[in-house]
């Protein structure tokens, strides 16, 4: 049993370290090159039911550091009405620069957090320069943060959705049945 655990830990470390080498390289290029010419700054906003959005923001800060510091996260709290959520969202949006584009990442398309946020943004005239994506997962959010200022419009959406979709896979864990002893 211990050998299975050690193999899993080794796999996770290997996968994590090698999978993100390319990401880290891309991140470095983005940080060095700065904003793409003609690119417009974007504010990333995470929307969810419960604590998913705030928790995802915390994970983004671990992976993306300062690039994730300006990400906003709003979760519809248990027992909170859509109107109460809307008031919190509107207060948070009052601090956002009106000249930046917005990227809304939501857990569910058509859910109360997303529809409430879109209604508030529409009333404020902010939907024209807003990208809305649903089915939020960590790869989607991470790529949105990494490419927020280097890709625009369709290229941004294609990259973010492509990475989010590519991350959805079944994990097949195989054990070595011939190895009955622990490898310690």
So, CATH architecture of the largest domain? 3-Layer(aba) Sandwich
Helical segment tally?
Answer: 6
Helix content: 40-55%
Strand order of the largest sheet: 2-1-3-4
Question: How would you portray this structure in words?
Answer:
- The protein has two domains: 1-33; 35-166, Rossmann fold (3-Layer(aba) Sandwich).
- It has helices at residues 2-33, 52-64, 82-93, 112-123, 138-147, 153-166; strands at residues 42-49, 72-76, 101-106, 130-134.
- A four-stranded parallel sheet has the order 2-1-3-4, with helices on both faces.
- The chain has 184 residues and is of the alpha/beta class.
SSE layout and pairings?
Blueprint: H1 2-33, E1 42-49, H2 52-64, E2 72-76, H3 82-93, E3 101-106, H4 112-123, E4 130-134, H5 138-147, H6 153-166
Parallel strand pairs: 1-2, 1-3, 3-4
Helix pairs in contact: 2-5, 3-4, 5-6
């Amino acid at each position: 049993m211990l050998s299975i655990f050690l193999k899993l830990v080794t796999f996770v470390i290997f996968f994590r370290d090698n999978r993100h080498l390319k990401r880290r390289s891309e991140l470095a290029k983005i940080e060095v090159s700065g904003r793409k010419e003609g690119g417009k700054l974007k504010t990333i906003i995470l929307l969810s039911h419960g604590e998913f959005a705030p928790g995802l923001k915390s994970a983004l800060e671990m992976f993306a550091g300062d690039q994730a510091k300006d990400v906003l996260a709003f979760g519809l709290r248990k027992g909170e009405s859509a109107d109460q959520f809307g008031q919190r969202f509107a207060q948070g949006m009052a601090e956002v620069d009106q000249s930046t584009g917005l990227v809304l990442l939501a857990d569910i398309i058509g859910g109360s957090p997303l529809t409430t946020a879109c209604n508030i943004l529409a009333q404020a005239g902010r939907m024209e320069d807003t990208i809305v994506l649903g089915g939020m997962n960590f790869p989607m959010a991470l790529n949105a943060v990494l490419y927020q200022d280097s890709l625009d419009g369709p290229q941004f959406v294609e990259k973010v959705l492509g990475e989010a979709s590519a991350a959805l896979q079944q994990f097949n864990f195989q054990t070595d049945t011939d190895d009955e002893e622990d490898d310690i």
